[in-house]
Every structure is written in C-alpha cells, then in structure tokens.
Amino acid sequence: MILHPRDKWQRAGLWLVDLLAAAGIGGVLLEKWGSAEPATLQSLSAGTDDWNRYARHAVEIGGGALLIPSAGCPYAGPGGFLYNYFLGLLAGIGFQDVRVVWAVHAVCLWGAGWLFVRAFGAYVKTPPARLLLSLGLWTCLLADYLPAYSWRLLSENLAVFLEGLWVYLLSFWDRKGYRQGLGSASCLVLGLGALCRPQWLGFLPLFAAMAASGMRGVHKKYFPGFYASLLLMFLLSAGVAVRNTLLCGRGYFLPTEGVQYAQEAMDLTPATLLKKGAFILGYLPALEPAYQIRPHWMLVWILWGWGLVQGRRKILMNTWGKMVMVFIFYYILTLFFVDITSYGYRYVLPIIPMLAGLGFILIEDRRLTQEPNINFI
Predict the structure, then answer these.
(1) Predicted pLDDT of residue 298
(2) What is the pLDDT of residue 366?
(3) Cβ-contact 373, 122 below 8 angstroms
(4) Residue 265: predicted pLDDT
(5) What string of DSSP letters covers 93-147?
(6) Residue 287, CA distances (Å) to 146, 211, 282 in order
(7) In 5, 35, 135, 254, which residue has its Cα 20 to 30 A from 190's Cα atom?
(8) How far apart are the C-alpha atoms of 183 and 110, rounded to whole Å?
C-alpha cells in the first residue's frame, strides 16, 4: 500500500507519541523492578485481598487444578474470573516472579493505548486533531492505570487491553475488513471482556442486537459465521457457570461475592446518587475524602457532553459509533449499582477513554458516518 506523504508524517508523529508513552511506562517499570522486594505468586497467595486470591488461584491453575477448587463452590470471587487464568498461564510456564507479571501488565497497558488511539483516531479528520487525541488518550491511561493498578494483581490490567482490542476490531465493522472476520472477532473479545469484568455482561444482549442490525446489506453467506461468533461470545462469557457446573453441579452464572456486594451497595437514595455522580465525574472526595480529584475525568466528561450538545439536533452514527455510545450509557448506569470505591476508582476507568475518544470525534464532526481512514488504522 502506497501512502501519501502526509499520511507518512502523521504515522511518524503518532508513533513518536507511542514510543514516548512506552518509554514512560518502561521507566516506571524499571524503577519498580529495582526497588521492589522480591516476591512470587506463591508468596503472595497468603492473604484475603483480591491480589492475594488471584495469586493463589494462579498457583493452583499453574499446578493443574484448572477448576480452582479453593475459590469455593460456587465460585465466590474475585470478579475477574478470566484474570485467574491469565496469571495461571504465566505461572504454568514458569513466570512466578511478580515483577514479570508487572512487565506483562505494562505491555497490556501500552497495547491498549495503541489500540485506542488507532480506533478513535481513524474517525478524526485532521492530523493535528489526531495528535491531540493521541495525547489525550495516553494521558488518561497513564494517569489512571500506571500509578494505581499496573503494579497490583488486579483484573483491570487485562480488561483495559481487551477493551482497547474490542474497540479497535469494532472499527472494521463498517468496511470491507469486517468480511475478513475482524468484525466477528470483536464478538469474541467482548465475551472475554465480560468474563474478565462482570459489569460488561448486561451489555452483551445490547451488542448482539445492534450487531445483528448492522449486518443489513452484508451478503448472506457471512451470516453463519457471524451468528456463530455471537453464540461463542455468550458461551465465553458463561465461563463461571461452566466452572460451577463442572465442579459443583450447579451453574451459578456470577461470582457470589459480586452479587452480595452489589446488593449491599444498592443505595438509591438521592443523597447517595448525587455523591456517586460527583465521584464518577471526577470529584472523588464526595465518597472518599482521602481520594484526590481527577481533573482529567472532568475534562473528558465536558468534552463528551459538549460533543452531545453540538450534535443535539441529529447525531448520525455508523454501527461503530452507536455501539460505543450505547456502551457508555450502559456503563454509566451500572456504576450506580456497585460499590465504586472498591479498590480505589477502578470501576469508573473503562468509560474514561471512551468518553475522551468519542467526545473528541463528536466535537470535530457530529455526523459520524464517514468510513474510517484505512491508511491510519
């Protein structure tokens, strides 16, 4: 493929930002690597925090106990069921040093940033705007994940990569690349994402309905593979139920702790809802006085809100834009039904890059109907 010189310079500029982000992530990783006390998954497996239990489950899986008997019958928690097997794979191939896990987390974070920038940037028209979008997305990811979560054994490190991969694959939905299976692959990645973060489960039926609607005009010969992908997406998301059925004889679909915590956090009084809303918008002291304000959250909410106002008369979107927008609204709704202060602010993180990317696109052009820039992706 022959690129226009402008596209070559644009790619070079974005790769420079990507490399600077990689250098920043690598620098923090080296500092953590050198200053941390030696620890292994085995040594971290004693304890009751989520990272202790993830380590304990990983050691079990690495030793061949694939159904994780110590997690209870039915599976109690932690919620990131897939993350157990992510760590178990590392343990099984001999990577017990926690610092190696940190390095893998760092790679996942950088990969997520690269995918988000390409997915959203493909719908931005001008090179300066793409560069600004890239800087904004990288700022959100590095400010939130790198200091608080990359150095802990928590499922957010895998979830952010799966989210970025899903949005990237979804960007092929409205062009010929879909026919090569990339659109169907987004179904499978979303299923894995729901197995990693249970809050995504309710989005799957919405995604399936929109995906089926988006198949209008596609040749019927692609339908069997597409609907098989949707079926596999739901099967993948049911991993907890499969494990419970095989080990316990009962197909509980969700981690029991998550259901219990959600019931306990079900406080829908106006005062609590207002505090949760302030927390979600970036004023974290509304629920936790010791937490810091997240000014970049406030900026991306303003960006997204401004984008909606700009297109308030008629926002026209392709399949990709509709799915991202519905994910945002769905996820906002779920945040009012969970304990969003659990382990910091991790529950809010999945919508921050979505708000930044889509808000930027809507401000530049409220008619998100153009094809993505193939040279850019």
Answers:
(1) 96
(2) 53
(3) yes
(4) 67
(5) TT--BHHHHHHHHHHHHHHHHHHHHHHHHTT--SHHHHHHHHHHHHHHHHHHHHH
(6) 23, 37, 11
(7) 135
(8) 23
Distance CA 242, CA 336 (A): 29
Q: Which residue from 319, 302, 339, 334 is spatially nearest to 123, judged by alpha carbons?
A: 319
Residues contacting residue 368 through CB under 8 Å, at least 6 positions apart: 123, 315, 316, 317, 318, 320, 321, 361, 362
Are 349 and 163 spatial neighbours (Cβ–Cβ below 8 Å)?
no
β partners of residue 97: 40
Inter-helix orientation angle 223-237/182-196, to 10° = 10
Amino acid at 282: G
Measured at the alpha carbon of residue 100, what is the angle toward residues 90 and 108, in degrees to the nearest 5? 80
What is the Cα–Cα distance from 296 to 262, expressed in whole angstroms?
Answer: 28
Cα–Cα distance between 334 and 342 in angstroms, integer?
14
Task: Report which of 218, 231, 110, 107 is spatially closest to residue 172, judged by C-alpha positions.
Answer: 218
Mean pLDDT of 49-76: 93
Q: pLDDT, tens digit, for every residue of 17-44?
A: 999 999 999 999 999 999 988 899 999 9
Spans of all domains in the chain: 35-368
